[in-house]
Design brief:
By secondary structure, the chain is an alpha/beta fold. About 35% of the residues lie in helices and about 20% in strands. It has seven helices and seven strands. The protein has helices at about 5-10, 15-20, 25, 40-50, 80-85, 100-110, 130-135; strands at about 35, 55-60, 65-70, 85-90, 95, 115, 125-130. A four-stranded mixed beta sheet has the order 1-2-3-4. A three-stranded mixed beta sheet has the order 5-6-7. Strand 2 (about 55-60) and strand 3 form a beta hairpin. The protein is elongated.
């Protein structure tokens, strides 16, 4: 999870009223499964099976988010590359998105998770709608 210096580097509030408001970044989990473009999906599938999420995120240099591998996609050829099976450019939210607003957006779209990235497209983590709803109360 980002520390105060990380928040400052990303231009996010670290002090004052806005800093105490829960955000996507403050609720993000960094335990999501990641892989590289050239990685074979067999080992990725095993990591997804052991994780609380039904997907893996494909990242490139410096952690830039490139795509997503849904659990259903990983059931095929274990030797296929992540690049050949990924959905390119999944939607993301910024770390400073207020938790209550994001929870409402996810609820309206019947989604349970959102991917959080920084302004440069680097993966920061994943948020769960139920946790956003809990902190927004």
């Amino acid at each position: 999870m980002p520390g105060k210096s990380d928040w400052l580097a990303r231009g996010l509030p670290s002090d004052g009223e806005l800093a105490s408001r829960p955000t996507a970044g403050s609720c993000a989990h960094d335990d999501v499964v990641t892989c590289r473009l050239d990685e074979r999906v067999g080992p990725v599938r095993e990591r997804v099976d052991a994780s609380p999420y039904g997907f893996a995120l494909v990242v490139g240099d410096r952690g830039v988010l490139l795509g997503r591998l849904r659990r259903s996609t990983l059931d095929g050829d274990r030797d296929a590359s992540a690049e050949s099976l990924m959905e390119p450019g999944p939607s993301t939210v910024r770390a400073d998105t207020p938790a209550d607003e994001l929870a409402e957006r996810l609820r309206g779209r019947e989604l349970h998770t959102a991917i959080v990235s920084d302004p440069e497209g680097r993966l920061m983590g994943v948020v769960l709608r139920r946790e956003l709803e809990a902190v927004a109360r």
